[in-house]
Write a structure and sequence with these properties.
GO molecular function: ABC-type transporter activity
Organism: Rhodoferax aquaticus
Number of helices: 17
Number of strands: 4
Pfam family, one: ABC2_membrane_2
Protein name: ABC transporter permease
Keywords: Membrane, Transmembrane, Transmembrane helix
Strand content: under 5%
Radius of gyration: 30 Å
């Protein structure tokens, strides 16, 4: 057996090609991986487009559901002057809000509203919603702003009758300035895309990693393979290369699916903000390389010691779940993005892909932690797999 570098690389290539051919022959499994990857972009864009269209339609309707509007003609006059349309709420609005069949909050006015207003008192109104009903809760700020406008108009009128300038109500003039770019604002809506790409890499690598280790052991083909005069490290590298390639192939299809999918966006503003093209695809793939390499090695290390395919699946599920849900940390952390995110597999890729979506630069300082982590994990796991194969061959 030759141990020279050309021979070693040839062995790696032969094993790699064999694993890729085996993966392509299993067309049923391949279709189960590739079809969801191709449909991912269109389905996500359709759902996003539908959500934005629904919110826009509700904003354009400018309707307020009211109970007891007949008790407040002054308030009615103000609301109608703001071009809002008043509609009577259903009698069972509380039950419908709880059942999520009513998607608008309800303004409830008491019978003594107008009398109390004329006496100079402060009548109470209720804005009824259900915090578990997110669509209804989203409409509460709009009604609250409407009522604040009514309060300001009343206060201005009273001050004017007493000869006091209305400017006394506003000691400070507030102007809002949004620093976010157009792409950054769009990223708030499309922030879930990186998580789908990460899941595509994980599931693409998972199938190949389990089949090339635990699958071969269960079929009884691993031990004969180890008897061949091929360095075990060459076997490991060849199999690992095929695992990483399949993970990256699924990630490529998933990323490409967002290019035509953006044409499905029906909202003009969102379509103008969301720009996903060749640069984003290339950047996403480059950022996934450390994740595909390291997670492919981790999954092989978990599976190589498993006695059955099912045992390997059970062990790998925890890793896939933890890494796949790692981006949730950035959503749930009230302190905002932290520097250690860039050192955690999955979380680092999510953070960097979000920068790409926001149109921000990818600096070496930001990319390097994820690459170093991926290289270290990959080396440790591949050496573990090679050692496990040597032990299995020695038995």
């Amino acid at each position: 057996m030759s141990t020279g570098t050309p021979s070693f690389l040839r062995h790696c290539w032969v094993v790699f090609a064999k694993e890729v051919v085996d993966a392509l022959r299993d067309r049923r499994t391949l279709l189960r991986l590739l079809v969801p990857a191709v449909l991912m972009g269109p389905l996500l864009m359709l759902a996003l487009s539908g959500l934005v269209a629904s919110l826009q339609e509700r904003a354009e309707k400018r309707e307020v559901l009211v109970v007891g509007m007949e008790h407040a003609p002054t308030l009615r006059n103000f609301i109608e002057r703001q071009t809002f349309t008043l509609k009577a709420a259903p009698a069972d609005y509380e039950a419908k809000l709880r059942a999520t069949t009513l998607l608008e909050p309800v303004l409830v006015i008491g019978p003594d509203f107008e009398d109390a207003l004329q006496r100079g008192e402060r009548p109470t109104v209720e804005v009824v919603s259900d915090s578990a009903n997110q669509r209804a809760s989203a409409g509460v700020p709009s009604i609250a702003r409407l009522l604040q406008g009514f309060n300001r108009e009343r206060a201005t009128l009273h001050l004017a009758l007493r000869g006091v300038p209305a400017d006394m109500l506003q000691s400070v003039q507030v102007q809002e300035r949004d620093l976010a770019s157009t792409q950054a604002r769009a990223a708030r809506m499309t922030g879930m895309i990186p998580m789908f790409i990460i899941m595509a890499v994980l599931y693409g690598a998972l199938t190949a990693a389990l089949d090339s280790t635990a699958g071969e052991r269960e079929r009884g083909s691993l031990e004969p393979l180890l008897m061949n005069p091929v360095p075990h490290l060459a076997l490991v590298l060849g199999k690992w290369g095929a695992v990483g390639l399949l993970g990256m192939a699924v990630a490529l299809l998933s990323s490409l699916s967002f290019i035509p999918a953006q044409w499905l966006l029906q909202n003009d503003s969102l379509q103008a903000m969301f720009q996903f093209g060749g640069w984003e695809v290339v950047a996403f793939l480059a950022l996934q390389l450390p994740l595909a390499a390291s997670m492919g090695a981790v999954l092989m290390a978990l599976a190589i010691r498993s006695k059955t395919f099912k045992e390997a699946q059970a062990g790998s599920a925890l890793v896939v779940t933890l890494v796949g849900l790692a981006p949730m940390v950035s959503l749930l952390n009230p302190s905002g993005d932290a520097a250690w995110y860039l050192w955690v597999p999955g979380l680092a890729q999510n953070t960097l892909m979000m920068l790409v979506l926001k149109g921000e630069a990818l600096t070496v300082a930001r990319v390097l932690p994820g690459v170093l982590t991926g290289v270290l994990i990959t080396l440790a796991c591949l050496l573990f797999v090679a050692r496990s194969m040597r032990l299995a061959a020695a038995r």
